Amino acid sequence: MKIKRADYAGTVHDIRELLPEIAFSGRSNAGKSSLINALLGRKNLVQTSKVPGKTRNINYFIVETVELPAIYMVDMPGYGYARIAKGMKSEWDGLARRYFSGNTGLKLLIIVMDIRRGIDKEERMLINIASRMGVRVLVAATKADKVNTSEKIGLAAALKASSSAEVIAVSSVDRSGLAGVWDAIDKSIGIKRDHI
Ligand code: GTP
Ligand code: MG
């Protein structure tokens, strides 16, 4: 994927232009922001952190590639960080509810999760929201560099069985799986690359 432009476009409150959206949602520290950077071939466009809970707002990045019309990649705050007070949880619920409700621009929900974890109630909730909205789901199983090849295959298969969604093992470190994520993005916005 040839990136022509990748810029921060503001938070959910600043967005005026309606473009197809690819949302990245998942547990705190799962690797959402790193995955967006890796997909865009940028080190620090999106802030990442060793400290969970870095992303506290819904951040939009406008992305133009040679192959696709302009899209937004949407970095959502993480959920499930144990040290964050209960108030944060309802803040996340509120943000997420407002983000998803009536969002006709949303084309693909990428659920970002550490490949070593199982599908939990929050991921289930996200899958349900997407299915009610008729939005495609991709599970991006991150940190695949932390396991060996046979573990990677087994863990991805188990996630596929328990989520009934497409699962791609990815790593922002060794960049494996990124092409598969781009293919899913392509498909979700209805562009067939071999027609271009
Ligand atoms: P919040 O913004 O807190 O919700 O976290 P996030 O999901 O955006 O995670 P972030 O991208 O900030 O990454 C969290 C930590 O995991 C950082 O220390 C990253 O360097 C690390 N990390 C992310 N992706 C990978 C990966 O594919 N492999 C490895 N080994 N580490 C990763
Ligand atoms: Mg983040």
Structure, described:
The chain is built from five helices and seven strands. It is α/β, with parallel strands linked by helices and 196 residues long. The chain has a seven-stranded mixed β-sheet with strand order 1-3-4-2-5-6-7, sandwiched between helices. Strand 3 and strand 4 (71-75) form a beta hairpin. The radius of gyration is 16 Å and the shape is globular. The mean pLDDT is 90. The structure holds guanosine-5'-triphosphate and magnesium ion (MG). Residues 26, 28-34, 48-50, 52-55, 77-78, 142-143, 145-146, 171-173 line the site of guanosine-5'-triphosphate. Magnesium ion (MG) binds at residues 32-33, 54-55, 75.
Low-confidence stretches: none
Class by SSE composition? alpha/beta
- In DSSP terms (H or I, runs of 4 or more residues), the helix count works out at 5
User: Which radius of gyration do the C-alpha atoms yield?
Assistant: 16 Å
Strand order across the biggest sheet?
Answer: 1-3-4-2-5-6-7
Shape: globular
What percent of residues adopt helix (DSSP H or I)?
25-40%
Largest sheet, in brief, is: 7 strands, mixed
Q: Hetero groups bound?
A: guanosine-5'-triphosphate, magnesium ion
SSE string, helices as H and strands as E: EEHEEHEHEHEH
Strand content: 15-25%
Give the terminus-to-terminus CA distance.
Answer: 13 Å
What is the number of strand segments?
Answer: 7
* Rounded average pLDDT: 90
In short:
With 196 residues, the protein is of the alpha/beta class. It contains five helices and seven strands. It has helices at 32-40, 86-100, 121-133, 149-163, 178-188; strands spanning 3-11, 21-26, 59-65, 71-75, 106-114, 136-142, 166-169.
